[in-house]
Amino acid sequence: MQYISTRGKAPELNFEQAMLSGLARDGGLYVPRDIPKMSHGDIAALAGLSYEEAAFRVMWPFLGESFTEEEFRGCIERGYSGFGHDARAPLKQLGPNHFLLELFHGPTLAFKDFAMQLIGQLFQTALQRSGERVTIVGATSGDTGSAAIEAFRGLDNVDVFILYPHGRVSEVQRRQMTTPTEDNVHALALDGHFDDCQARLKDMFNHFEFRDEVRLAGVNSINWARVLAQVVYYFTSAVSLGAPHREVSFTVPTGNFGDIFAGYIAKRMGLPIQRLVAATNQNDILHRCMSTGEYRTDEVIPSISPSMDIQVSSNFERALFDAYDRDGAAVGQLMDELQSGGFSVSQGALQALRETFASGRASEDETRATIERARTRMGELLCPHSAVGVKVAEEQQIGEIPMITLATAHPAKFPDAVEAATGIRPGLPPRMSDLFERDERLTRVTNDLEAIETLIKERIAK
Ligand SMILES: *Cc1c(COP(=O)(O)O)cnc(C)c1O
């Protein structure tokens, strides 16, 4: 299985290379050259399997020769062993034909653990084999960073640096990043927004001298291996509601378009998904783009669902690549236009996107009202991101086809917003109840590429 760049100018890589490098050298994102198909029978056979076995069957065709079957099964087993729920991704009914897919039972209480725990194991396996060392740098609006640190802390061949926007992540998120004591963990608080963190990260990847010197590896949602890990729960949840004999739809709280893009891959593989609905908060570039065809960046307005406070939605480039019939030059052109504020999606591409994707937006008031209503009417405490999803899903007029809304984080990760809406302060699960007593360790950095690169070089030289 080979991987190609969405901008068409980087060398093709195999799975392991694409995973270790993250961003392609032409600035594009890696996607599989061909999407493996699962037959009706293959999908039906997933019913009743453990999450781990289903994960193996769904992902294996994408790996090619990179890992042995035994290595890969070991990575899956170890990756998901720290989850606090046997089903890993349990499904709950919210209302008539409306279901909630709980993706927050991992070690950092957000769906990012599904991908990060697995790729921590895959990196470890690949690097042990080659004896190499890499420097992982990630940008986070909160949850990616905590999930990455949790997945890579203490691993032998890796240093992990996480850039997060200072003062703009929740206290639980920050503490999950700043309290691990391992020497290979470095939490960097940047003066700026998440988009600044993401922009500096991209700069580092495009600065080849630095990239090669520190052996930079990326684990942001642009990393193909992360997208792949997220494909699995689309299959397990759909099958438990009757797929492949029956269609399902999903609503996905969206920021960087990674999670929802995994749903699109599941559909391309043969899962009968009728619709994938992108749910945004007030930072609604994706909803505006789907509605009007205009992809124009705006100021980020901080919200109570901070993990979706994003204006530049990196993985959308992957969806555009397919919508433009895999024309890398056309995608490269759009991304150039984005540098000066935005671009218009062509009519044909917009039509292609709308065949699969729909979209909606929830304001802050609507999000709060949904958290409150879910509590009183459905007995469910939702995190603000999941509430954005539930609100947008309900607008879709759920009919015969079941709607599955992804619950992307545990309410205890955003206790202030949940308490403000419901009067109830959600408690952390017992396994992490001492989080607020642990010491914190972080480094403040300015929004300056050179300063950040110098700091990273100094730290890894030790
Ligand atoms: C990261 C995150 C999202 C957005 O996911 P994308 O893959 O970036 O679209 C939504 N909710 C929570 C809780 C997250 O951590």
UniProtKB/TrEMBL annotation:
Domain annotation Threonine synthase N-terminal: ranges: 2-80
Occurrences of domain Tryptophan synthase beta chain-like PALP (ranges): 92-331
UniProt cross-references to InterPro entries, sorted A to Z: Ser/Thr_deHydtase_PyrdxlP-BS, Thr_synth_N, Thr_synth_N_sf, Thr_synthase-like, Threonine_Synthase, TrpB-like_PALP, TrpB-like_PALP_sf
Enzyme class: lyase
SUPFAM superfamilies tied to this protein: Tryptophan synthase beta subunit-like PLP-dependent enzymes
Superkingdom assignment: Bacteria
Cofactor: pyridoxal 5'-phosphate
Keyword Glycoprotein: no
EC number: 4.2.3.1
Entry's Gene Ontology BP terms: threonine biosynthetic process
A GO term, aspect molecular function: pyridoxal phosphate binding
Entry keyword set: Amino-acid biosynthesis, Lyase, Pyridoxal phosphate, Threonine biosynthesis
Recorded catalytic activity of this chain's protein: O-phospho-L-homoserine + H2O = L-threonine + phosphate
Keyword Magnesium: no
Modified residues (N6-(pyridoxal phosphate)lysine): K112
Pathway(s) annotated for this protein in UniProt: Amino-acid biosynthesis; L-threonine biosynthesis; L-threonine from L-aspartate: step 5/5
Similarity comment: Belongs to the threonine synthase family.
Protein's UniProt name: Threonine synthase
Organism the protein comes from: Poseidonocella pacifica
